[in-house]
Amino acid sequence: MLRFLTGTIFFISLVLFFSVYVSPEYFPYAGLLTLLIPLLLIINGIIFILLLLAKRRLAFLPLLAIVIGWKFMGVTFQLNPIKDNPKGLSVLSYNVHLLRYAKPGGDNKTVTQNITKWLQDNPSDIKCFQEFYQDFTTPSRNAIKALATDSGYEYSYQIIEGNPRKRSYGMVIFSRYPIINEGRVFDTKRNNGVIFADIKVDKDTIRIYNAHLESMSIPSEGLSDLDGIKENYRETLGKLKRGQVIRATQLGVLIEHMKNSPYANVLVGDFNDVPYSYTYFSLRKIMKNAFETAGRGFGFTYNKVLFFLRIDNIFYDEVLQIERFKTHREVDYSDHYPVSATFSWEKPLRKVSLEELD
Asked: 204-212 and 264-270: which strand pairing?
């Protein structure tokens, strides 16, 4: 019985570990299965300890599972050293929740003032925002004026919905350096999309991608207790499955666009996917992740009931060197926390080749 149980857990672990390479376009439930990976790692660890204490040779199976799944440890938790005064190009990414997020009982106006002040004071050279709201009709809501025009930043604002001369929302990239080219990779005409800007930094040019992939649409308020979970689990699973499939399609478009970029790429944003996903591992195969190379702790970026999610990321081409990465968990003005990174590179900056991406 013990052999059967250990062998079964080992087999399930292998299936889950390799399911991150299976596109949800072909198997929609692959993305849901990967959510069990942390649990399987814990179970294998417990079984290994118990078998080891019992001096059973069977302990090699859970140990082998842990070794094979070790990469998931790195995407979950890091203890990289922190540099106090990093030098280089600093990039900030933040889902700002239309600049008016308020917790229950909170004051929308106060939150808007606070988040605007924090964004103005943040010294990052490049600032990328998702769910950005712009209102040209109300001076106090003119975010582009407050965060770009009055703060010395150039900007690329790609509208998803609204009137470009009045009120609208979309995605924006602010830059202290000249923006020589800009555009959108795609948008969903709802709330999601990917935009880019080519930014001239001294004699080099770097391409910044700002992404907001298909939302998970998880009703987190309805999952705050057992009754809520029972009531909403079918709807939630359906939304998760649908989101996984759409993100896989969006990811294909994005990766193809990045491969055709003439410059080194930095990809930031709200990916609406956990590290144990096809989205994350497809990007991890061609780029480095700033949390993994320079982060500390768990790096959770979601500021709601499901607080244990890390769905905001910064990826970068291997020709860049990461100097620092930080999750700003002290900044709770949105349902996401900001993330930032500082990069340096050897000059002149070399573009990574398509062969290297593959």
From this structure: parallel
| The pLDDT of residue 120 | 96
The separation between CA 119 and the C-alpha centre of its own chain, rounded to angstroms, equals 19
Task: Check if the beta carbon of residue 353 is closer than 8 Å to that of residue 208.
Answer: no
Residue in this structure with the two tokens 């040779």, named with its chain if needed: 57
Q: How many CB atoms lie within 10 A of CB 72?
A: 21
With tokens 């808007």, the residue in question is 112
**Two tokens at 302?**
């979601």
Confidence of residue 226 (pLDDT cuts 50, 70, 90): very low
This prediction's pTM: 0.92
Q: List the Cα angle 143/175/193 in 5-degree steps.
A: 70
Any idea what the Cα angle at residue 118 is, between residues 142 and 153, rounded to 5°? 55
For residue range 24-74, what is the model confidence (pLDDT) as tens digits? Answer: 988 887 778 888 999 999 999 999 999 999 989 999 999 999 999 999 999
Q: Please, is 306 exposed, middle or buried when counting C-beta atoms within 10 Å of its C-beta (0-12, 13-18, 19+)?
A: middle
